[in-house]
Design a protein that fits this description.
Strand order of the largest sheet: 1-2-3
Number of helices: 2
Largest sheet: 3 strands, antiparallel
Number of strands: 3
Shape: elongated
Helix content: 25-40%
Strand content: 25-35%
Structural class: alpha+beta
Amino acid sequence: MLKTTKSISLSGQSYVGDALAMSFTAKIGNDNGHSTITASTINQELYDTNKKEVRQDLAAFNDAVYDVQDKMAVSDDKDASNETTESTEPAAEPGDGTNGVTPEAEKTE
């Protein structure tokens, strides 16, 4: 049996000049909201000498991930509020002799 899931992936890179110092990836699941964020140091020496800038990029990447998560949560809330439930009982129709009363609601004396 095939089971599929839907997720959103983000990626980012922190450059110092033209050199890549660190790369970032994130996977955000739609089904349970579970997220994974990974930061990989590509050039340790470049990272060590530019920690402040690279960490600012990491913080900006995390903020981007949080924005996507928040938008997904708002979208999920809207989807939930738009859901409707259907009645399994037929509604009485005007002019059908029931005067708008379903048979279950009629009183018997």
